[in-house]
Design goal:
Elements: E1 6-7, E2 26-27, H1 49-58, H2 62-74, E3 82-85, E4 92-96, E5 120-127, H3 137-146, E6 151-153, H4 163-179, H5 181-184, E7 194-200, E8 203-208, E9 217-220, H6 225-230, H7 234-242, E10 244-245, H8 251-264, E11 268-270, H9 272-275, H10 281-288, H11 291-297, E12 300-304, E13 325-327, E14 343-347, H12 374-382, E15 385-389, E16 394-398, E17 402-404, H13 413-417, H14 429-437, H15 452-462, E18 466-467, E19 470-471, H16 475-478, E20 482-483, E21 510-511, E22 521-527, E23 544-558, H17 560-568, H18 578-588, E24 594-598, E25 601-607, E26 624-629, E27 635-642, E28 650-657, H19 666-672, E29 674-680
Parallel strand pairs: 5-6, 9-11, 9-12, 12-15
Antiparallel strand pairs: 1-2, 3-4, 4-5, 5-14, 7-8, 7-11, 8-10, 13-14, 15-16, 16-17, 18-19, 20-21, 22-23, 23-24, 23-26, 23-29, 24-25, 25-28, 26-27, 27-28
Helix pairs in contact: 1-2, 11-12
The structure holds zinc ion (ZN) (3 copies).
One zinc ion is lined by residues 176, 180, 183, 398-401.
């Protein structure tokens, strides 16, 4: 009787005939689904694969042994390992995620575990037959039959400034120009009011109001000391207009100029530090207000993803650790010797794709420093074509597609990883704010300016009214923003660029897409005054919002006084179930818990910022607050404190949290509340 060919239940390669069997093994002809039954969709995972893989190596699976050896070089073997294959069948990773919390079973938030080893992702792939052409269907099929999760990829050039890399770039470029209708749409290549003219490889000039319609390049980069030193100021303005020797510029800029001239063949370049007068607030505000359209109209944006200092070169060489290892695939009945394709594993390169918003354990993008910067968010979202340069490889993003040298992200960013939309209207404003709020700004005062280009674009499309990061027409949703629970509360910024009813008044990640609507609140009017020249920028401190709604009084507690209060109560919830009450009690006494007492009942509230940090924004435990009831969703109400005896109006300090264990009986509270008009600053 012919022996049935089997697939290893750990590495998913077909086992050589004669190998011992384990319960996880499956008949080879069952197909991919055999490994997925009951698993998470669309990310298929096999947990505890590490232990299984060790057993498998011991029974003689050579592939398992090689995989284990390679992974042990890059990650602690204490980690879990899981296979992760995306349903789009494109992205496969062998993944060792952070340890899970013993209590909740979910990944431990980064802030609670600074020592935690980073999440390591391995790419597992088969070599593409042709270097740059799309992968043919027959190759994809063959690969599938070899292994269910296998990708098709390439080795990158190893040097992003090499002729090979430049030839690839040129090819991506010409494909886009020749066949992408959406990338060519609506382009008015009017030069920015001030721009660099690359007069020759040795000289650049700052020129103004050039009437030509010419393609230009934008640079997306991170500022550093050399950037500041060479920046445009009133004192060097005249000299820069007559010409700067390229050799005076930082290395990054010199490389960018080289890339513009060849292979791109473009002679106009926009760099913020050289095109905005850095010692003129008026100039900065005026140009900052047009920044969105400067990036939007650029022919291409060069994104210096790995540069933390502009004295560093733009181009990089692949570090040796990025070397891929070949996996010896045993000859089997379905893939006889000589027919087998070469299979590799390598540690995944950082790709400038996506932001780890709702997965605190993910650090896959932590290695792309530029994409953590607040200003870059709109630069990237608005640019129609982007050349990303990382140390490992070149990659390409345009409205229609994505390419990269290693080929793992070809055309798939949109579907699986990239949250910043190539078509900015494909993402809701609320989502954009969430993504943006994670990013870092050198100056908190730029919080609204760095998003103004996107806001202006959305306003032009929807004809809605905007202030401080929110839309009047959608205030029932936007008003209910809350701080992201996982992130620690930070002190309020010293200088507020927005009123306290805006998410822009706090520092750190916010959550807006929870779906709640403030159905019990009427938005009467907002009296907003812009602080500078840009209507999409910072607001004056007198800007206020008038609402009318049902208000109850409460007392907030935290620290020792809260713990004593919880202990004193025989019952903490209105729910008579004993179990429920004890769960609520445990929940209410979590570390750093913030409680509020309303009509003798205890509830949970989520402060917008670190209310216990000393200063003008401190709110003492025991303070009386007003609670504006909003809806019976997760954000039940808004906690407001009076601005003081000498003045009128309120400030928002946090939200009344409808915790699953400590339900807020909103309907009952509404019965006892009085309708009031409140002015919030
Ligand atoms: Zn195996
Ligand atoms: Zn394109
Ligand atoms: Zn890549």
């Amino acid at each position: 009787m012919a022996q049935e060919s089997m697939r290893c239940g750990s590495c998913f390669f077909e086992l050589p005939t004669g190998a011992g069997h384990l319960p996880e093994d499956r008949p080879a002809d069952l197909g991919v689904e055999a490994f997925y039954v009951g698993r998470i969709h669309p990310v298929h995972t096999v947990k505890n694969a590490f232990r299984l893989m060790q057993q498998s190596a011991e029974r003689g699976c050579v592939t398992c042994e090689v995989l284990l050896t390679f992974m042990s070089r890059h990650t602690s073997t204490q980690n879990q390992i899981m296979w992760q294959g995306w349903a789009s069948d494109a992205v496969t990773a062998f993944h060792s995620p952070p340890p899970l919390s013993a209590e909740s079973g979910s990944p431990i938030p980064k802030e609670e575990d600074a020592e935690r080893p980073p999440n390591v992702v391995f790419d597992f792939f088969c070599m593409a037959t042709a270097t740059d052409d799309p992968v043919p269907a027959f190759q994809q099929q063959r690969t599938r039959s070899l292994h269910p999760f296998l990708n098709i990829a390439s080795h990158p050039s190893g040097d992003t400034g090499s002729d090979l890399a430049m030839a690839r770039l040129q090819r991506w470029f010409s494909d886009c120009i020749a066949s992408h209708a959406q990338c060519a749409k609506d382009q008015t290549p009017q030069l920015p009011a001030r721009v660099l003219w690359l007069a020759s490889p040795d000289t650049v000039r700052v020129i103004e109001n050039c009437p030509h319609q010419e393609p230009y390049v934008c640079l997306s980069h991170r500022w550093s000391a050399p950037t500041v030193k060479i920046s445009l100021r009133s004192a060097n303005y005249a000299r820069y207009q007559s010409g700067i020797a390229t050799c005076e510029l930082p290395r990054l800029f010199r490389d960018v100029i080289r890339l513009c001239l060849s292979p791109l063949g473009i002679r106009y370049l926009w760099i913020d530090s050289l095109c905005i007068l850095q010692d003129s607030l008026v100039d900065w505000e005026t140009i900052a207000a047009t920044m969105g359209s400067i990036y939007e109209n650029a022919f291409v944006t060069i994104s210096a993803d790995d540069n933390t200092d502009s004295d560093q070169p733009l181009f990089g060489r692949l570090p040796p650790a990025a070397d891929a290892a070949e996996i010896p695939v045993p000859a089997t009945a379905s893939h006889p010797a000589g027919d087998a394709e070469k299979v590799f594993i390598r540690r995944q390169f950082p790709h400038p794709a996506g932001i780890p918003m709702h997965s605190p354990g993910t650090t896959a993008h932590g290695d792309v420093p530029l994409q953590r910067r607040g200003w870059v968010y709109q630069e990237r979202a608005l640019s129609r074509r982007i050349i990303h340069v990382t140390q490992a490889e070149l990659s390409w993003e345009c409205v229609e597609t994505t390419r990269c040298e290693c080929r793992l992200n070809e055309g798939h960013w949109n579907a699986t990883r990239l949250r910043v939309p190539r078509n900015i209207f494909a993402t809701s404003w609320e989502r954009m704010v969430e993504e943006y709020s994670i990013l870092e700004l050198t100056f908190e005062r730029d919080k609204l300016q760095a998003l103004a280009g996107l806001a202006r674009r959305v306003a032009a499309r929807d004809r809605r009214r905007y202030a401080a990061g929110l839309w009047w027409e959608q205030l029932d949703a936007g008003f209910l923003w809350r701080r992201l629970k996982h992130a620690a509360a930070r002190p309020r910024p010293k200088v507020l660029v927005a009123p306290t009813w805006s998410w822009a008044s706090i520092d750190g990640p916010v959550w807006l897409t929870h779906g709640d609507r403030a159905k019990d609140v009427v938005f009467v009017e907002w009296a907003v005054k812009v602080a500078g020249v840009d209507p999409f920028g910072s607001l004056d401190k007198d800007s206020c919002l008038t609402v009318s709604g049902y208000v109850v009084e409460g007392v907030i507690h935290y620290g020792l006084s809260w713990e004593e209060l919880v202990d004193k109560r025989s019952r903490v919830t209105t729910n008579p179930l004993e179990l429920w009450d004890s769960l609520a009690r445990t929940e209410l006494k979590r570390k750093n818990f913030m409680g509020v007492e309303i009509h003798g009942q205890l509830y949970s509230w989520l402060p917008d910022y670190a209310v216990d940090s000393p200063g003008p924004w401190m709110v003492m435990s025991g303070s009386v607050v007003r609670c504006l009831l909003c809806c019976d969703g997760g954000v039940a109400g808004m906690l407001l404190r009076s601005r003081g005896e000498k003045t009128t109006g309120y400030e928002r300090i946090g939200v009344l949290d409808n915790d699953p264990f400590i339900r807020v009986p909103v309907e009952d509270l509404l019965q006892q509340a009085s309708r009031e008009s409140l002015v919030i600053y």
